[in-house]
UniProtKB/TrEMBL annotation:
Membrane disposition: Multi-pass membrane protein
Principal subcellular localization: membrane
Name this polypeptide is given: Lysine transporter LysE
Keyword Metal-binding: no
């Protein structure tokens, strides 16, 4: 009986995880930028950091600390403001970044594992997604932890697929970015898409 209830939860977990992880947001825009400018291999620490950071937050919320954000909207607003400031900084850095063919000493670099993990702490889309997974998509009673662990596993599997899809998309279009002007235009578009996330963050 318990196994049947858990199996019945899987389609909802998959659909929610796909909708949350495949749609454009700060993480996916940055993964596309990194895939295009640095390639798949050098973007691996970035996507690993995203998954590690989100998984840690997910577990903390499942333990119960996520209710702090539900009961204290001001804390959530603080996260939104911090994320907005960091997104502005990232957009600025992307605009100023040079072609990967450049030999300049101040050449940009991909986001590190630690940087990507820490960013999840203030990423509102991450917080909102994990709050939903920790509350609406868990089962009550003795099935809470089995359903919670299932949610962690399913979300990571689906989100990895989504993340690599965006990295691969960036890698594919990188072939069109050999011209430094084209690459700079691409960087401007990626920076602009990050800025578009700002009003969406504050509407959510």
């Amino acid at each position: 009986m318990h196994a049947t209830e858990l199996i019945a939860l899987i389609p909802a977990l998959v659909m929610f995880s796909l909708a949350a992880s495949i749609t454009p947001g700060p993480n996916n825009i940055l993964l596309t930028y990194s895939g295009a400018n640095f390639g798949i291999r050098k973007t691996m620490p970035h996507i690993a950091g995203i998954r590690a950071g989100m998984t840690l937050i997910h577990i903390v919320m499942l333990i119960g600390l996520g209710q702090l954000l539900v009961k204290n909207p001001n804390v959530h607003m603080l996260f939104k403001l911090l994320a907005s400031g960091y997104i502005l900084y990232l957009a600025y850095k992307i605009c100023l970044s040079r072609s990967t063919n450049s030999t300049s000493q101040d050449q940009s670099r991909p986001m590190s594992f630690v940087e990507a993990a820490i960013f999840q702490l203030i990423n509102p889309k991450c917080i909102a997604t994990l709050l939903s997974l920790s509350t609406a998509l868990t089962l009550p009673g003795e099935l809470y932890w089995p359903s919670a662990i299932l949610g962690v596993l399913m979300f990571n599997i689906v989100a990895l697929f989504s993340g690599f899809s965006w990295i691969y998309f960036g890698k594919v279009i990188s072939q069109k970015l050999q011209n430094p002007k084209h690459q700079q235009y691409f960087n401007y578009v990626m920076a602009s898409l990050l800025l578009v996330c700002l009003p969406l963050i504050h509407i959510s």
